[in-house]
Amino acid sequence: MRKNNMSLAVLDQSEKMDALETKSDVSIIGLGFVGLTTAAAFAKLGMKVIGLDVDSDKVSKISKRVAPFHEPQLEELLLDSEKNFSVSSKIELAGRSRIIFLTVGTPSRSDGSMETRFLIDAARNVGSAIKSSTDYPLVVVKSTVVPGTLLKVVIPEIEDASGMTYGTDFGACSNPEFLREGSAVYDTLNPDRLIIGGTKKDSAILLSFYKRLFGKKMPKTILTSPSNAELVKYSNNAFLAMKISFINQIARICESLPNADVQIVAEGIGLDKRIGRSFLSAGLGFGGSCFPKDVKALQHFSKSLGYDAPIVEATMKVNHDQPLRAVQIAEEKLNGLEGKKVAILGLAFKPDTDDMREAVSVKIIEELLQKGAIVSAHDPKALKTASLVLDDKVQLVSDKKDCLRGSDCALLVTEWDEYKTMKPEFFRDLMRSPVLIDGRRLYDPTQFAKVLDYSAIGLDRGASKTTC
Ligand code: NAD
Predict the structure, then answer these.
(1) C-alpha 363 to ligand 1 mean position (Å)
(2) What does the pLDDT average to over 183-210?
C-alpha cells in the first residue's frame, strides 16, 4: 500500500488488489455527503475503512484530504482519520471487508419515484466483489430507499452477480442515515438513534459493529424488519417536511390578518411539548437533496399501494407554491418586475452548505427572469455550484455590496450567519429603492421597517408598511 504523510492512501488503478496488507473493517460505496462523512467518522472512531466511488476525480480530491463539497469540519475530520482511511475507485476492493455500506444516491425520477440505477450498479459490483468470500459479508444499505428495496432489489442483484445465497453466504441490512447537511460531521459522530432492519443474525452483526464503534456512547437502537427501517426514514423526512409546510400555511394566513406574525404563533405552539419548536420556521419552503425527493418518493410509493396519502400530497403542494410568494410580493411592491433589478441573498438550499439540489433560489430566480427582472445573486459558499445550475443571465457576485448596489429590491433567500448581522442602513445606502423581502424571517421587523420598505413571510402586510 502506497502512502505518504501528506495524503490518504489512494489505491490507484495500477495497483494490485493484494497490495492491501490488511483487510478493512468496512467498505463504504459512494463518497457523497453521507458516504464520505460516514467513512471519515468511522475511521476517526478507530475502524479501518476503505471508501469507494466511481468518480475518480472525487477519489483523487479526497486522497489529498480535500473535501469535494463544502461541509463544516469535514476537512479536519479527513485529517484526523487519515491513518485508518484509504480511498479508491476500484469497487472490487469491497470484497476485502466484512461489512459493506452502500451510500450511493437515490434521486427522483421525473415521475417522483425513486431512481434505483446507482443502487443496482453498486449492488451488482458488490456481488462480483464478494463472489469468493467465505466469511459471510454483510451488505448494509444506508441510502434512503422505499420500503421493499433491500429485499426486492438489492439482495436479488447481489445474488445474481455473485451466485451466492442471501442468509447463507451473505447477509444484508437496512440502516437508514439521518445526518443533516451543514452538521453532518457532528451528526455522524453523535447519532440520536440507530435503526437496523434485517434478520436476527444480520442485525446482530451490525449491532456488534456499532457497539464497538460507539462504546459507551451507543445511541438508542431499534432492531426491526427491513421494510420498517426503510419506512422510518421516509416517514421521518415527510413529517419534518409537513411541519414546514404547515407553518408556511399559517404564514399565509398571517399575511392577511391585521397585526399577525407567524413567528409569535410558532413560538406559542412550539411551547406545547407535544409539538416542539423545531421545523416551525416559516420561510420560502424546503429544498435540498432529501426532503423534496423523499416526500415525492413516499407519495409515489403510497400510490403504488393504492393509497393517495393526502397529507403528503398537501405538503408538496404548499411547498411548490411557497417560493413564488416572494416573487409575488416583489411584483406588488415594484409594480411589476420588467427591467427591475432584484438582488438575491443566498443561493444554497440552506446555510452551511454549497448544495444547490432543489434549492428554492433556483425556482425564485427562474420566475423573476421570466417576469423580466434583472437578477444579481450572492452566496458565501455556493457560487460555484450555483453557476452549474443557474441561467447565465444571472449575475453571480462574491461581494454582497456588489449584489445590492443599485437594486430595486432585495430578497433574502438563505439564512447564512453573515446576513444576520446586516443593518437596515447597509441595504438602504446601497440600493436604488430600499425594498427588502425577508424570506427567512432573519430581521427584526420593527427596526427594519423604520429604515426600509420591509416585508416578510408570515407578517401582516399592513404592519410591515414602510415608515421611511
Ligand atoms: P451524493 O449524490 O452526494 O453521493 C453519492 C455518491 O455515490 C457520488 O459520489 C457518486 O459518484 C457515488 N456513486 C454513484 N453510483 C455509484 C456506484 N455504482 N458505485 C460507487 N459509487 C457510486 O448523495 P448523498 O447526498 O450522499 O446521499 C446518498 C444517500 O443518502 C441518498 O439515498 C440520500 O437520500 C441519503 N441521505 C442523504 C442525506 C444528505 O443530507 N445528503 C442525509 C441522509 C440520507
Answers:
(1) 23
(2) 98
Does ligand 1 lie within 6 Å of residue 121's CB atom? yes
* Ligand 1 contact via 144 beta carbon (within 6 Å): yes
Q: How do residues 98-149 score in pLDDT, each as one tens digit?
A: 999 999 999 999 999 999 999 999 999 999 999 989 999 999 999 999 999 9
Ligand 1 mutation pick, 193, 289, 293, 354, max ligand atoms within 8 A of CB: 289
Give the model confidence (pLDDT) of 415-467 as tens digits: 999 999 999 999 999 999 999 999 999 999 999 999 999 999 999 876 544 43
Task: From the CA of 180, give the closest atom in ligand 1.
Answer: 40
> Which ligand 1 atom sits nearest the alpha carbon of residue 34?
26
Confidence at residue 387, expressed as pLDDT on a 0 to 100 scale: 96
Averaged pLDDT, 213-225: 97
Q: Is the CB of 177 under 6 A from ligand 1?
A: yes
Q: Averaged over 237-263, what is the pLDDT?
A: 97
- Per the DSSP assignment, residues forming a β-bridge with 172 are 139
Give the whole-number percent of the chain exceeding pLDDT 90: 91
The answer to whether the CB of 195 falls within 8 A of the CB of 222 is: yes
Confidence tier at 6 by pLDDT (50, 70, 90): very low
Centroid of ligand 1 to alpha carbon of 135 (angstroms): 27
Angle (nearest 5°) at CA 74 between 68 and 78: 90
**CA 123 – ligand 1 centroid, Å:** 14
